[in-house]
Amino acid sequence: MPMSALAPVRRPRALAARLWTVTGLLGFAALLTMVLTTEGVAEGDRPVLRWLIDHRTGWLSRALEVVSSPAIAVGVPALAFVGALTVGLVRRRWRPLATLAVAFCGGALLSTGLKLVIGRARPSTASMFGTQASGWSFPSGHTLLTSVLLGALVLLAWPHLRTRARRFLACAGAATAAAVMGLSRLYLGDHWLTDVLASYALAAIVLGATAWLTARTTRGEEQS
């Protein structure tokens, strides 16, 4: 295919990736400011937590405890990486593995670094349900990494989803799963509302940057 035909396709994708990244940066900056000043959305952290604690039910508590369990937090990323590695070994296509690695490692570094820099305390252990979480609270690592992983999988699947309906379903499924993970962290009392919201903003930054890098790499390969 001539490069003149490829250019109009690649440019909108690169522009969308940049807009996604900028939106995430602005959202995260706003949330971080609220957390540091205890204003705005951060004023709702304690009321939201208290409401969720007051409305806990047995079956939902058990279900969301499974969602946040180590088996899910470790098992799902492991399966995704094994699948990407298999594709690389069988088809000699390493882009899926590289995309997952860049996105997931970027999210992990952001989560770990910000926890250490911000040093925000978690809700009290009396508020937690089930296994008590430890370490710093901001941002929510579970939420960030789940969102990044699911988003990266959608990015990889996007070129193969030929219809708008399929793309919508892929995005809706990933967004729903990420929302359920965020809800589980709030419901179980492991995080504040702003921890989870900031994680979504960070995921947008990571995914936007990953999509932009992927677009640039693909364009470079096509030109060579």
SSE layout:
Elements: H1 3-37, H2 45-54, H3 58-67, H4 70-91, H5 95-118, H6 141-157, H7 164-187, H8 193-223
Description:
There is one protein chain. The protein contains eight helices and no strands. By secondary structure, it is an all-alpha fold. It has one domain: Vanadium-containing Chloroperoxidase, domain 1, CATH 1.20.144. The longest helix has 35 residues, at 3-37. The radius of gyration is 19 Å and the shape is globular. The two termini are 13 Å apart. Residues 1-9 and 220-224 have low confidence and may be disordered.
Give a summary of the structure in a few sentences.
By secondary structure, the protein is mainly alpha-helical. It has eight helices and no strands.
Descriptive tags:
globular, disordered C terminus, disordered N terminus, mainly alpha, 224 residues, Vanadium-containing Chloroperoxidase, domain 1
Query: How many domains make up the coordinates?
Result: 1
Content of β-strand: under 5%
Gyration radius, in Å: 19 Å
Total E-strand runs: 0
Kindly provide the name of the CATH class. Answer: Mainly Alpha
Described by the principal axes of the CA atoms, the overall outline is globular
CATH architecture descriptor text = Up-down Bundle
Oligomer: single chain
